[in-house]
Every structure is written in C-alpha cells, then in structure tokens.
Fold DUF2642 domain-containing protein.
Amino acid sequence: MLEALKGQEVSVNFLDGSSVRGGVLEEIDERFVKYRTEYQVLYIPITSIRAVAVETKERERPRVGFGQ
C-alpha cells in the first residue's frame, strides 16, 4: 500500500504521537521506510508508523479579529 505513495510529499504520524512533515518517501521495503526532508534522511521502522498522510489541498487559515 505504501508503494503507491513512493516519491510523494507526505506527513508521517508515529505511535507515540510525534510526526514528521514536508518530506518525501524515497524507498519502501517490508521493514523500513526511507523518508527524506530538506535537513535529514530518516529510516523509519514500519512498526512505529501510525498513519501516513498526503496533503491534497492547502487549508484556509481562520481569520483573526472581529468581522464588520
């Protein structure tokens, strides 16, 4: 299933609640995922991943202040 995301920019959410964003899935095998960001290369064990998210559309930021 992760093979379909190879080469795409994704966010990876881990079982402990942390996450990484803005990187690309480069390589995938049965035990590890190679994830490259601008600053680092991560080799992530498949067993530590909770979810992988693909950003398909940029969210609108809520307006700050009072409407008139």
